Amino acid sequence: MKYFKKLTIYILFSTLVFQGCSDDSTLAGDDHDHDHEISTPTTYQFASRFVDNESSVSYTGQVVRNVLIKDLKSLAGTAGTASASLEALYNVGAADSALSIINGQKQTAWGDFDGNTSKISNKIATDVLLGYDKTPDAQMKEWFGEVPNLVAANSDGSRLVQASDSLELNQMVGKGLLGVVSYYQATSVYLPRIDEMDGGAYKYDNTAAVEGKTYTQLEHYWDEAFGYFGAAQDYNTYADDAARKSSYDTNADGSIDYKSEYNFAWATYAAKRDIDCAGTCTINNDFTGTIMGAFLEGRTRIHNEETIASIVEQRTIIVNAWEKMIAANIIHYAHDVISRMSDSGNKQILHSWAEMRAFAMALQYNQYKLISTTDLSTIITDMGTAPPAPSTWSDYSAKLTTIISTLQSAYSLDAANITAW
What is the pTM of this model? Predict the structure, then answer.
């Protein structure tokens, strides 16, 4: 599989590079213990340095929030849903034991997550959403309140939209939360802690276990970022990208474990865009291998107490590739919108528009974002806050073409990729 070949070459290259570096600022000091050092694994599983026969990996809270987001998306697209149901999942989350998990896997009730009581409301970004001029919290609550009044967009009632502007709220809620919670937390809260300073020293420790735990602070923060990406622990051992769109009962116990075997939305959308590019793209066409590979390599370097610089290198790979993957999804759905404009009776265009716009909500919430504030603001303004009236689709097509061009330039994307997505 291409991932293993790439990872092997990449590790060899990285080793040569960092052997020649003069920066010797290690996380644990120059005299750290080499006895526990490991090679980069193929699955996201790391033994504790401090407790024999125990794992040092822990990110259940992030898994719970990914399940909450999945369920909020489902409720926001279900006829007859009361806004109170969405509010309860959002504000109380897994602490509300009265609520069952929609389409549960191994875990069917919130109590199945080892007592974890995570919720969404305390992890959402606070910067005002571009275009909507509200905080993400205020915008989500407004949409929750409108869900009971949604009307059918399709004759079979399979998609619900706002009567006033044809906005499909399950996409805005589901994909929106992926951006303002999962992506934001990973790229702007947890991964920045790797080299965060407190005075003249690094703020977070990697030399001792957190009290009562099997991991260090840095190990845990890296794990939590990985949890928000939402990949199964053996994600890159699957046969191909088509397989990574799904989830597998790896241990063959008869059910899929959300905590280790399930592929949540960000992980599946990385695979979908890689599939689009199979055999045609030239660069930036391995989101799955690049992101998962850097998570594995970075966690290994933290375990081995390597230099801050070497770990930051892996963080940069993750945040940049994840951002480009979001841009690829925006481009994909912009193409969908353009292709459906000629069919005036095709309501699928409303779904494609909502997917495009919801993904665009994420781009402002990456502390390390590559796109300029000017370009992002222009893109958001040109997209608007709801699908345009059918009579203006032709004019809107020109805006989308410009948006695609701006994204191509901002991320130095090859023309073959743009066409494929």
Answer: 0.92
